Amino acid sequence: MIQYLPILILFFIALGFALTNVGVSEILGRKKPSEEKLTPYECGVEPVGSAHERFSVKFYLIAMLFVVFDIEVIFMYPWAVAFKSLKLFGFIEMVIFIGILLICYLYIWKRGGLEWE
Question: How wide is the angle at C-alpha 30 spanned by C-alphas 23 and 28, nearest 5°?
């Protein structure tokens, strides 16, 4: 366990640095709130509606589909790196993998999972 001591020391130094900076800025920082400063910032655009507006479930479904397909594409990177050593077996496995992804994509498309209304 003595081998982990430098990592533990570095962790406490980083934690102390962060807490010190937050504390100093809280103590020395100016506090002059105004109406303009208290409005939410929306990338330079005036905010429209309430921040607690409900989103459609469709929004979350499309977001989850994006994450799932994005992760599947990330799985292709190690395969591409080791492609020469995998030879024909690796190629066939990736064709099967992409085929399954294509079937899933077509299923989602036919069910209207990518339609935004």
Answer: 35
DSSP string, the chain: -GGGHHHHHHHHHHHHHHHHHHHHHHHHS-----HHHHSPPBTTBPP-S-TTPPPPHHHHHHHHHHHHHHHHHHTHHHHHHTHHHHHHHHHHHHHHHHHHHHHHHHHHHHHTTT---
One-letter amino acid at 14 equals: A
Contact 72, 101 (CB under 8 A): yes
pTM summary value: 0.51
In the predicted structure, residue 72 carries a pLDDT above the cut 90: no
